[in-house]
Amino acid sequence: VWKDGTRAIDKDVPDVTKSIINHVNTSLARQAYNIDDMGAYQAVALAARDDLLINWNETQLNYTRKAPKRAYYLSLEFLMGRTLDNALLNLGLKDNFTQGVDKLGFNIEDIIDKERDAALGNGGLGRLAACYLDSSASQELPVWGYGLRYKYGIFQQLIAPDGSQLEAPDPWLEHSNPWELPRVDVTIDVRFYGHAERLDNGKAIWSGGQEVLAVAYDVMIPGYHTKTTNNLRLWESKPKRGFDLNSFNAGDYEKAVQSSNSAETITSVLYPNDNTMVGKELRLKQQYFWTAASLNDIMRRFKNYGKPITEFPEYVAIQLNDTHPTLAIPELMRLLVDEEDVPWDKAWSIVTSTFFFTNHTVLPEALEKWPVPLMQHLLPRHMQIIFDLNLTFLQAVEKKFPGDRDRLARMSLIQEGYPQYVRMANLACIGSRRVNGVAELHSELVKTTIMKDFVEFFGVSKFSNVTNGITPRRWLDQCNPALSTLITETLGCTKNEWLKDLYKLEGLLKHVDDPKFQKKWAAIKQSNKERLAHHVEVTLGIKINTKAMFDVQIKRLHEYKRQTLNLLGVVHRYLALKKMTPEQRKKINPRVVFFAGKAAPGYYIAKLTIRLIVNVARVINADPDTKDYLSMFFLPDYSVTLAEILIPASDLSQHISTAGTEASGTSNMKFCLNGGLLLGTVDGANIEIAEEVGDSNVFFFGHLTPAVEELRYQHTYHPVPVEEKCPALAAVLDEISAGRFGDGSVYEPLLNTIRQGDYYLLTEDFDSYIQALSMVDAAYQDRTEWIKKSIRTTAKMGKFSSDRAILTYAEEFWNIEACKVP
Ligand code: 26Q
To answer: Which residues carry this modification: N6-(pyridoxal phosphate)lysine (predicted)?
Structure first.
């Protein structure tokens, strides 16, 4: 029985073994005595799925009966990772399954390890969506996710012999996926191309073109210790008609299957770009296919409530995860005006009461814009709607700011030129009730930069902040079970209580000075470091000194995230070590620096950065003078699952973006929750983390956001050579150029981004970065003080639970309430 009085699923150990054996015999059609770990995983997953399904059915039935207002989270990315361990923990069945599996002669951790990640996302934005689903279900909120069922998730990363990144496909569905339920009965027609004919009063008829089927696959999302099990609906594209019979009968088989192939292509692969816009037609097709199918589905469900269409916003809230689903705005207009006969103005008021828009970046290269000719061709009716909306909108702007032509040009949904472009952020803004950023600083930047004109037009109250969060279930209880147990013992409340009210972690502060507690805390960190070292030894065949400080930077490769700064810092340290005598070196604390992360396949500089990291690592790790004091690793194929091993093992993590560029960051929260200290710039959520834990428990460096613009101006119009600006950095660059880490000419394009222009301001921040690293070294010398900082950090992470974030969305934006399963 859970604390709230609801019953957990009853499944004792004999029930568990019975159910697993049953699935081996029936679902897998195999013999129980002849099963390997992979077969065992499949049977165990099916056994857990049975329990999820019971809860899922009851939850959905309850929603249908009670007909509450619902919220929908539209995201092109859901970076879920593995499911089995999470499902067992949320169901409260981990112990019984562990024992049951043991009785059958297997080890639960080995079985868990057989599952492939569901990697339907690039990075932060996709993982945030996954954390929000976990929190919605855990808070018993009627929230569904909508996304695409990509056949291939984010590519697998390999490292070539020369150190560069190679990409391989991620066929994650090769083995059947027990966590999805195909809903062949839920299919929706989606139209592309064709012709839109205007009628009176704003209506039109859209016909012809290509029709594609969207087929629903449902993924169960269990809440932590609650019956509520929500739904993530992913769409797969399918041809509407098998193949073109006319061509087939004429003997042209290639042409006969062409159009069905093009239908299947839509959901074949996740675009591997993160924080850069790529203007490919297929990507726009994905966006429309997904928003059209989702809105149609949402509309059908709303109609089952039997309410008048004008009450749509009383029962439906839709959150747009960045601009990727912005086509949902003209699509809902089309459904209301063309298909439901709602007058244009009424339709617009329904639309603008339904949508909410989250912005995740202010970087200009990441803001989505689509060529008008492309959109006209693919979605002729939507292009009409956008032009009509724009006309009315610009008239209103003109009325409020008469004669301000520059303002009109900036605010227009259309960027003029040849070709014209549709500005998706502007459309998302005018079509939504509220707009939010993802951390305090970022939300201020949204208001003062990309949305400044819109703040002046709509008023500031439309714009706000919801600082991101992470689920403590996956990012502490699941990935760091020993720490979770120690916390539960220490706090004197149940695990359920603190995992659902993370502010309770503050209770750890009482124990900061207790040497026994400190010792246990340190021992857990140590064993997590050994777990990581073991993993690296098994997968890469490399031995790691676990007595060293583990210093970790894991995130997508991007110039603004400045992995290069970290790398150049390591080279600087290496050169300094080389100059020391053996006696001097002995005083140095050994350090192991870990990097991991993928580069977009078309991002040349990011890929070159990986290549340099790998080749610097080779030289440093092989140098007998220094290798006991400094080593460095690039761990290939970063994933949610690898993060779950790396994060609990880190002493220090780096979040060192140029101030004002990282909207929030969420791994910073994960490291701190696991007692890793933070080395970072005054950017994104780093600032709020420091506010919580206190300045003395984080290591900050670098210029602040307001300085960045001025410095960039200086770099452009009054450049100063690196040798003058920052001699220490110039020396490092020269060593690389001179070939100390392999042919230096290979890296010139990367080094030149710093020597010329230096848009991300490495030369401005290098000295203070090196200084911050020395302060880290000094702090690590006093191990007891370090452990205290670590405890204090974890204790103050309450704010960063995604439960807090999702409740803010639910209460302040969506106006939805918990809907408990009776
Ligand atoms: C857009 C158009 C075409 C192709 C790809 C894209 C695209 C895809 C992914 C643009 C952006 C993304 C992903 C962005 C992202 O992950 N942003 C991160 O979001 C996190 C959650 O809010 C923040 O913590 C990070 O700071 C932010 O970088």
So the answer is: 670
Q: Does the beta carbon of 278 lie inside 6 Å of ligand 1?
A: yes
d(CA 142, CA 816): 8
Q: Are 722 and 755 in contact (CB under 8 A)?
A: yes
Tokens of 517: 């507690």
Domain locations in the chain as residue ranges: 67-82+117-389+432-443, 526-800
pLDDT in tens, 34-64: 899 999 999 999 999 999 999 999 999 999 9
Contact 263, 192 (CB under 8 A): no
Q: Choose which residue among 78, 269, 273 to substitute to test ligand 1 binding: the one with the highest number of ligand atoms within 8 A of its C-beta.
A: 273
H-type alpha helices, 92-163:
94-103, 108-112, 124-138
CA–centroid distance, 503 to ligand 1, in Å, is 28
The number of CA neighbours under 13 Å toward the Cβ of 313 is 18
- The DSSP letter of residue 478 is I
- Block residue for tokens 């855990």: 138
Residue 666 Cβ inside 6 Å of ligand 1? The answer reads yes
- Domain 67-82+117-389+432-443, classified CATH 3.40.50.1110, yes or no: no
At the second CATH level, the architecture of 526-800 is 3-Layer(aba) Sandwich (3.40)
Task: Tell me the β-bridge partners of 219.
Answer: 180, 232
Residue 427 CA to ligand 1 centre (angstroms): 18
CA of 324 to the centre of ligand 1 (A): 10
User: What values do phi and psi take at 583, rounded to 5?
Assistant: -65, -45
